[in-house]
Design a protein that fits this description.
- Keywords: Aminoacyl-tRNA synthetase, ATP-binding, Cytoplasm, Ligase, Nucleotide-binding, Protein biosynthesis.
- Its EC number is 6.1.1.19.
- It is found in: Cytoplasm.
- Belongs to the class-I aminoacyl-tRNA synthetase family.
- Helix 15 (about 380-400) crosses helix 16 (about 405-425).
- The chain has a four-stranded parallel β-sheet with strand order 5-4-9-10, sandwiched between helices. A three-stranded antiparallel β-sheet has the order 1-3-2. It has a three-stranded antiparallel β-sheet with strand order 6-7-8.
- About 55% of the residues lie in helices and about 10% in strands.
- The chain starts with a helix and ends in an 8-residue tail after the last helix.
- It contains 21 helices and twelve strands.
- The protein has helices spanning about 5-15, 20-25, 45-50, 55-65, 85-100, 135-150, 165-175, 180-185, 185-200, 205-220, 225-245, 265-275, 305-320, 335-350, 380-400, 405-425, 435-440, 445-465, 480-500, 505-525, 535-555, and strands at about 40, 70-75, 80-85, 115-120, 150-155, 275-280, 285, 295-300, 325-330, 355-360, 365, 430-435.
- It has about 575 residues and is an alpha/beta fold.
Length: about 575
């Protein structure tokens, strides 16, 4: 039950619906201290409608509402403070969680609508660095959150497998490359050649001319250029998939930029037919001055296409293929202006799904304070970070629980989970500085802290020896149990909020609060004491375990039963 909605409905009824329940709902809040109740309504907004002092309105409302869901309703100045009936609410919440289990919090808001998610999108012939972590794990979590809210996400890994960089790479490989080296360690050497190109082209500007020529050959289908490009793409995908498997991330499609090569002319023709394409200093542009935006450059003066040309073709293809209700682009915040231009062009073209285009920006990630750059050779490989994290987790687990049967599997789940959670606990728009040692701590705002709380709950349940505690009305009271009940009751609203904001950190922060509340309860309560409240306490512990596991799942993090 949404008790916030109940407050809104009862307040609206108490004032004869002179203000709608929806308007009141928006003003219902959670008091900062438990002494002021579980929910509160400030009566200020009703003064102009009822022509009364807010204090008098609050008194009238408090006296008018009669329902046993509230233990008491108190008017404190202009506020109406609602105290929920702890035993009644706890029984309802625990019954619902234990019945619905991992489906608790599911809703049908999305009405099975398709949502395409443009995410991860690494460049071929470059390694996946820590710079690729954010788009990958944020996009993956958003997909899971969308599914829980009734949408049908399609994760599209829009690979960077085309562009002038391939002219540079082909040039570098032909000048300094060695086939055996590339076969032995492809990504390492391809990056080495790419970095060397940029180191040399400052003194040898003719290299840029050669690179442009090779990319033109690639565009024209030159067999040698195409063969090298296909080889670079194949070995890169092989390396990417190793990393994705470690992260537990998969995709519905890998249509890269090259997939849209034969669709670019159609984009240009359509823009011309619609009278949208204009000439500007030899280039072809779409004027966006009516949107207070700079012109969108569609073709260079030499007729070469650009990113926006391909993204228009991509959006049209997705629109025609999937008929999405939303198109999400999980891309760094530095591209915000670009996506405003892209959306404006698509709207001018009359694309049906253009209104549902959303840029989902995220902040920069640094490692130990340093910005990452492939071009300048400052790369921290994501694969290596994941491996190091697993090794560090293995060492900690060996020290804490040397008799754990499946140490390697748990270390994998904890180590990888620490990296994912370490990213997603932050508001995505914030820039973050990644520190592996901090993320692997079993105390504080970390993935292992939440995982350990879940494992602790499962340990308690194991000691209960499969006692049947699911049936019956489990009425609980007391401050520490009540704190957990309120958090469990809030989970469906948290799921909706995370979805509305495309914000995994809402789930991550919730899981931390629930883990903290449970650890506090565990420390001060003899859960397994054989009394008439044992089943109720076990029902609470099981509910915590279920929702912690589901919260972690929505983030793309595993929840081991033992640690």
């Amino acid at each position: 039950m949404d008790y916030k909605q109940l407050v809104a409905d009862t307040v609206a009824e108490a004032i004869d619906n002179q203000v709608s329940s929806a308007e009141i709902y928006a003003k219902v809040e959670v008091p900062k201290t438990a002494q002021n109740g579980d929910l509160a309504f400030p009566a200020f907004m009703l003064a102009q409608h009822l022509h009364q002092n807010p204090k008098e309105i609050a008194k009238h409302i408090a006296a008018s509402i009669k329902t046993d869901v509230f233990a008491k309703i108190v008017a404190t100045g202009p506020y109406v403070n609602f105290f929920l009936n702890q035993e009644q609410v706890s029984a309802k919440v625990l019954e619902t969680v234990l019945t619905e289990r991992d489906h608790y919090g599911d809703n049908h808001d999305g009405n099975n609508g398709v949502v395409t998610i443009d995410m991860s999108s690494p460049n071929i012939a470059k390694p996946m660095s820590m710079g690729h972590l954010r788009s990958t794990v944020i996009g993956n979590s958003i997909a899971k959150i969308l599914t829980k809210n009734g949408y049908r996400p399609i994760k599209d890994n829009h690979l960077g497998d085309w562009g002038t960089q391939f002219g540079k790479l082909i040039t570098a490989y032909l000048k300094w490359g060695n086939e055996e080296d590339v076969k032995r360690d492809p990504i390492h050497y391809l990056v080495k050649y790419y970095v060397e190109f940029h180191e040399r082209d400052e003194q040898e500007p003719e290299l840029d001319d050669e690179a442009r020529e090779w990319f033109k050959k690639l565009e024209d289908g030159d067999p040698k250029a195409v063969k090298l490009w296909q080889w670079f793409r194949e070995v890169s995908l092989e390396a990417f998939n190793q990393t994705y498997r470690k992260l537990g991330v998969d995709f519905d499609t890998y249509n890269g930029e090259s997939f849209y090569n034969d669709k670019l002319q159609s984009v240009v023709d359509t823009l011309k037919q619609d009278g949208l394409l204009e000439k500007s200093q030899g280039a072809s542009v779409v004027d966006l001055s009516d949107q207070d935006l700079n012109p969108a450059l569609i073709l260079k003066s030499d007729g070469a296409s650009l990113y926006v040309t391909r993204d228009i073709a991509t959006a049209i293809y997705r629109d025609e293929t999937y008929h999405p209700v939303m198109n999400l682009y999980v891309v760094g915040s530095e591209q915000t202006y670009y996506f405003k231009q892209l959306k404006a062009v698509l709207q001018k073209m009359g694309l049906q799904s253009a209104a549902g285009l959303h840029h989902v920006p995220f902040g920069l990630i640094t490692v130990n304070g340093k910005k990452l750059s492939t071009r300048h050779g400052n790369i921290v490989l994501l694969n290596e970070v994941l491996d190091e994290s697993v090794q560090m987790a293995q060492q900690q687990i060996s020290e804490k629980n040397p008799n754990l049967a499946n140490q390697e599997q748990v270390a994998e789940e904890v180590g990888v989970g620490a990296v994912i959670f370490g990213d997603l606990k932050n508001a995505r728009i914030d820039s973050i500085d990644f520190n592996l040692n901090e993320q692997l701590k079993f105390e504080g705002e970390t993935g292992p802290y939440v995982q350990y709380a879940h494992a602790r709950a499962e340990s308690v349940l194991a000691k209960a020896q499969d006692r049947d505690y699911a049936a019956g009305q489990h009425r609980l009271s007391g401050a520490e149990a009540w704190e957990i009940i309120k958090l469990l009751q809030a989970f469906p609203a948290v799921v909706k909020k995370a979805n509305a904001e495309f914000e995994p950190s809402v789930i991550a922060k919730y899981s931390l609060r629930l883990a903290k509340a449970f650890n506090k309860y565990y420390a001060h309560t003899k859960i397994l004491t054989p009394d008439d409240q044992l089943d109720a306490r076990l029902a609470l512990v099981k509910s915590v375990s279920l929702i912690l596991k589901e919260s972690l799942r929505l983030l793309g993090v595993q929840a081991p039963d033992e640690m």
